[in-house]
Amino acid sequence: MNNAYLNRVFEKVKQRDPNEKEFIQAVQEVLESIEPVIEQRPDFEKAGIVERMVEPERIITFRVSWVDDQGNVQVNRGFRVQFNSAIGPYKGGLRLHPSVTLSVIKFLGFEQCFKNALTGLPIGGGKGGSDFDPKGKSNNEIMRFCQSFMIELQRHIGQFTDVPAGDIGVGAREIGFMYGQYKRLQNEFTGILTGKGLSYGGSLARTEATGYGLCYFVDEMLKHKGESFNGKTVVVSGSGNVAIYATEKATQLGAKVVTLSDSNGYIYDPNGINLEVAKDIKEVKRGRIKEYVERVPGSVYTEGRGVWSVKCDIALPCATQNELNEDDAKSLIANGCKYVAEGANMPSTPEAADLFKSMGVFFGPGKAANAGGVATSALEMCQNSMRLAWTFEEVDAKLKGIMQNIFKSAIEAASEYGSADDLVLGANAAGMQRIAEAMLCHGVAY
Ligand code: NDP
């Protein structure tokens, strides 16, 4: 980073929170890429835009105590980071995973601001969650945890203030339990969460949105290079919401997806993933991905990481942060992979992302490529406010249009700043400018 102002801001971030490694990584990635914007806009420095952007407007941490099935009291830590509300109410998911820390939630909230700005919709950025581990918990334990979590969270959210959604470990079931608790406590029926069930205000196509949106984005990347999904081999990591629906859409668009994974290992199916089986294991039985090979002849399960050693044209990391490192990137490149697009948030380490860039792999960063989820959440908010429900086709068509626009904004910003095809720069620059313009209008409180 050469720009003195950005360096100053970055040093301050490191000095303030030296132990927040994920947050520092996310800030570094953004600051490095927005150098050309800062060079052209001295008014941003004058108004202290970047130092304000890296500091959350509000951080809430709270105790979540609940009783397990054996009658023991358990205590987890809950978080909500309300990062930036310059362009709309805070919006971003809730993550339930033992790896959740303030650093993880801050990195996710920070990225969310840019992503949400890129969608062109009126949503600010936030993120939340808890270090609660849903794995192996009974339905009643999940319910009691979600209710306890909402007892505190309800004070801080609202349809015009902050509208959380799902993320890792938070799907329709958890959103349902949280929504029910909010309604009991507040005695009102408003769109305070997205990813809701269809019977109480959810949007059609929200479940599919992140995975589908990712593929619409990749389709634009492919078209940009005069290619299409047709006949391409795709490697997908993860086997959760994003991975399943990315697999579904890539398959519909003519590609063959050959892998899915979880934190224990990965499956390889040379005939293309059988989605009916994968959905039954993950969505109905809540099982492990290795069960797939017991049901689909010809498929193989490999314990451990290693999904990126499988030969492919397109790689879609859809599990979690830093799941694809430099060695993985080398092996993808050696096997001829030409496109990488991030379904997960920050799945590629900085070294991996740099390697993709230097070796000419067309790289779609998460904040652009996986923005379809939050965009459709904003469409859910819109339907809730209007007391209307759009059809699946209506929502899907809007999602596709939004993803095409995101690609257009990012690719145009990349070439405006002299770095054609650099979608990291393009996405960060376009998102940052929209937020910064709004912050300039709002002034600073003295
Ligand atoms: P899910 O909980 O549905 O699935 C997560 C998947 O990733 C599971 O297969 C899980 O395996 C795997 N995984 C999680 N942690 C690890 C780990 N440490 N190592 C290896 N695998 C891991 O989550 P989502 O599909 O919703 O989210 C996946 C990613 O996409 C996240 O980065 C999320 O932030 C991002 N995202 C999600 C959006 C959404 O709408 N859902 C929107 C935009 C981004 P296991 O069961 O073994 O833990």
Helix/strand layout:
Layout (H helix, E strand, L loop, with lengths): L3 H13 L4 H13 L1 H6 L1 H5 L2 H5 L4 E10 L5 E12 L5 E7 L5 H17 L6 E6 L8 H15 L8 E4 L6 H15 L19 H19 L8 E4 L4 H12 L3 E2 L1 E3 L3 E4 L6 H10 L7 H4 L4 E4 L10 E3 L9 H9 L4 E3 L8 H9 L3 E3 L1 H4 L2 H15 L5 H25 L6 H20 L4
Parallel strand pairs: 3-4, 3-5, 6-7, 6-11, 11-12, 12-13
Antiparallel strand pairs: 1-2, 2-4, 8-9, 9-10
Helix pairs in contact: 1-2, 2-6, 6-18, 7-8, 9-10, 9-16, 9-17, 13-14, 16-17, 17-18
The chain binds NADPH dihydro-nicotinamide-adenine-dinucleotide phosphate.
The site of NADPH dihydro-nicotinamide-adenine-dinucleotide phosphate has 23 residues, from α10.
Give the tags.
five-stranded parallel beta sheet; single chain; binds NADPH dihydro-nicotinamide-adenine-dinucleotide phosphate; 2 domains; Rossmann fold; 446 residues
Structural summary, described in words:
The chain has 446 residues and is α/β, with parallel strands linked by helices. It folds into two domains: 4-189, Rossmann fold (3-Layer(aba) Sandwich), CATH 3.40.50; 209-364, Rossmann fold. Helices cover 48% and strands 15% of the residues. The protein has 18 helices and 13 strands. It has a five-stranded mixed β-sheet. Strand 3, helix 6 (102-118) and strand 4 (125-130) form a beta-alpha-beta unit. Helix 2 packs parallel to helix 6 (102-118), helix 6 packs across helix 18 and helix 9 crosses helix 16. The longest helix has 25 residues, at 392-416. Residues 166-169, 210, 238-243, 262-264, 318-320, 323, 343-345, 370, 373 line the site of NADPH dihydro-nicotinamide-adenine-dinucleotide phosphate. NADPH dihydro-nicotinamide-adenine-dinucleotide phosphate (NDP) is lined by residues 166-169, 210, 238-243, 262-264, 318-320, 323, 343-345, 370, 373.
